[in-house]
Amino acid sequence: MTRRAEFEMCLFVVLQSMFLFSLCSSQEFLPEISPDTSPQPFLPFIAPSPMVPYINSTMPKLSGLCSLNFTASESLIQTTSHNCWTVFAPLLANVMCCPQLDASLTIILGKASEETGLLALNRTQSKHCLLDLEQILVGKGASSQLGRICSIHSSNLTASSCPVINVDEFESTVDTSKLLLACEKVDPVKECCEQTCQNAILDAATNITMKASEPLTDNSERINDCKNIVNRWLATKLDSSRAKETLRGLANCKINRVCPLVFPHMRHIGGNCSNELSNQTGCCRAMESYVSHLQKQTLITNLQALDCATSLGTKLQKLNITKNIFSVCHISLKDFSLQESGCLLPSLPSDAIFDKDSGISFTCDLNDNIPAPWPDSSQSSASTCKKPVRIPALPAAASSQPGLYNEEVKRLVILFLSMVLVMLLS
Ligand SMILES: *[C@@H]1O[C@H](CO)[C@@H](O)[C@H](O)[C@H]1NC(C)=O
Ligand SMILES: *[C@@H]1O[C@H](CO)[C@@H](O)[C@H](O)[C@H]1NC(C)=O
Ligand SMILES: *[C@@H]1O[C@H](CO)[C@@H](O)[C@H](O)[C@H]1NC(C)=O
Ligand SMILES: *[C@@H]1O[C@H](CO)[C@@H](O)[C@H](O)[C@H]1NC(C)=O
Ligand SMILES: *[C@@H]1O[C@H](CO)[C@@H](O)[C@H](O)[C@H]1NC(C)=O
Ligand SMILES: *[C@@H]1O[C@H](CO)[C@@H](O)[C@H](O)[C@H]1NC(C)=O
Ligand SMILES: *[C@@H]1O[C@H](CO)[C@@H](O)[C@H](O)[C@H]1NC(C)=O
Ligand SMILES: *[C@@H]1O[C@H](CO)[C@@H](O)[C@H](O)[C@H]1NC(C)=O
Q1: Which of 104, 118, 220, 317 is the most buried (most CB within 10 A)?
Q2: Is residue 122 in contact with ligand 3, taking CB distance under 6 Å?
Q3: Which domain range does residue 331 map to?
Q4: Among residues 350, 351, 369, which one has the least CA distance to residue 407?
Q5: For the residues 232-251, what does the mean pLDDT come to?
Q6: pLDDT at position 355, please?
Q7: Ligand 1 atom having least distance to the Cα of 57
Q8: 97, 84 in Cβ contact below 8 A?
Q9: Residue 148 Cα, ligand 1 centroid: separation in angstroms?
Q10: In a mutational test of the pocket of ligand 3, which residue from 113, 115, 122, 129 has the highest number of ligand atoms less than 8 Å from its CB?
Q11: Is there an atom of ligand 1 within 6 Å of 381 CB?
């Protein structure tokens, strides 16, 4: 973590504890719901007198040199600023903030092509426009570090290496009806397995890549750049909210496939948990300490937690640990998410919610105590699609433990922010 992220995280915890609860103690953070109670809505904490309305939504200073009409995308930008809210941006980067920022940029650039006939900005424009957009977002409460957090550069608003940006040329090169048919109605669950729209986008991107005057031996980067152009074109054919849903859905297919956590060195586990597990206490203590490092990193989705369990389990097996120490040490899926309170985000795209009385909140799929599945070393990493996993619902591994959790109990974690916080950070 960078110093700034640490600083923000620390403040986050401090401010939380200034209110009614502390993030450091899971029992206080979320009320315990015993496994056998029926699903019940989560009752938000009673907030102290709301401070959020005082957040200083500053008037951004714009360059005046960007031709994009940001006013036309007001609600997208609003949602982006909530998903990328100051302190939360690094914690939600992978799942909420950056995918929403990418989608917004794609839609804004797509809509601009209706006026200009071009699906990309030139270099000068791209610099002014990215700076202006950042200013607008920061003015609405977003982190000022979005460029770094989401690795967005002004080049991302240009054609990059894609040879086609002219709408007419695009439409005469690509089989647009085929592309639209595949992407007009994307079912975010089925799409991740069937990849109908993703394949059509790849196909279209490959076709426009071929228009390049100088051929390359490796076209993969160019095809990638062209995919952005295809996405922008698609965004002009769908209404704004459908376009957003589609782009976020496609992004989530990728997001859910990988564990975003960084795994530190495992030497203590190797020493304590070797083979015959002679000292279970020592092993579980080492595991707990290891997992607590993972928990400081980021909020993840329930499917990412499953990926993380697989990654960690596989690494342990490579250390010749054959016994299921997840089970021995009671490691559950929620143990991989930020803090012990275990908020796992839903696997489908979701947005942070802003309420002027209570601040920023987001919905967690709290899949309490679903044991982390120990990877079956005889199976080569089976993709999610081959497993009988219902994506928005829960991992197959969980269904063997009926009664241990309340499926689809949704609790809202209300996180209060205040003007104090914003001022401290700016
Ligand atoms: C908001 O912030 C700007 C600049 O940071 C400052 O000029 C302005 O007075 C502030 N407004 C309020 C209501 O605090
Ligand atoms: C920008 O879009 C808004 C809403 O669609 C519209 O009212 C406004 O006239 C546009 N501004 C310019 C400069 O085109
Ligand atoms: C870049 O685009 C803007 C707006 O479309 C245009 O006014 C400007 O002349 C272009 N600059 C260059 C160097 O092409
Ligand atoms: C932005 O461009 C950089 C290279 O300039 C690339 O590495 C990065 O993936 C791009 N980001 C997005 C969101 O496309
Ligand atoms: C891409 O080109 C191939 C071969 O010309 C064609 O069959 C396919 O329909 C095209 N796909 C799209 C989406 O343009
Ligand atoms: C066991 O784990 C502890 C930390 O929990 C560590 O200090 C110790 O060195 C480990 N022992 C071995 C043999 O790796
Ligand atoms: C097991 O490990 C723990 C912690 O490392 C240690 O306190 C305890 O003495 C060990 N027990 C045995 C029987 O080695
Ligand atoms: C695991 O066991 C194999 C065979 O017993 C051995 O060759 C290998 O070095 C061991 N790996 C580790 C990391 O201990």
Answers
A1: 104
A2: yes
A3: 267-414
A4: 369
A5: 96
A6: 80
A7: 1
A8: yes
A9: 25
A10: 122
A11: no
Q: What percent of the chain has pLDDT over 70?
A: 73
Joined together, the tokens standing for residue 400 give 């063997």
Which mutation among 172, 173, 195, 207 tests ligand 5's pocket best, with the greatest number of atoms within 8 A of CB?
A: 207
Decide the pairing of beta strands 359-365 and 410-415.
Answer: antiparallel
| Domain match, 211 and 178 both | yes
Residue nearest atom 10 of ligand 8, based on CA coordinates = 320
pLDDT score at 25: 28
Q: pLDDT tens digit string along 75-111?
A: 999 999 999 998 889 989 999 999 999 999 999 999 9
Helix (H, G, I), strand (E, B) or coil at 292: helix
Q: Does some domain include residue 168?
A: yes
234 within domain boundaries: yes
More confident residue, 264 or 357: 264
Cβ neighbours of 178 (radius 10 Å): 12
Nearest to 418 by CA among 130, 97, 7, 19: 19
The residue nearest atom 8 of ligand 6, judged by CA position, is 268
Q: Could you tell me the pTM of the whole model?
A: 0.79
Nearest to 67 by CA among 1, 133, 150: 133
Of 203, 228, 255, which one is at a domain's C-terminal end? 255
Q: Of 255, 275, 304, which one is at a domain's C-terminal end?
A: 255
Q: Which SS3 state, helix, strand or coil, does residue 423 take?
A: helix
Residue 340 lies inside a defined structural domain of this protein: yes
Are residues 243 and 292 in contact, defined by beta-carbon separation less than 8 angstroms? Answer: no
Residue 286's φ and ψ, nearest 5 degrees, are -65, -40
Mean pLDDT for 118-130 is 97
Q: Are 273 and 393 found together in one domain? A: yes
Q: How many domains does the chain have?
A: 2
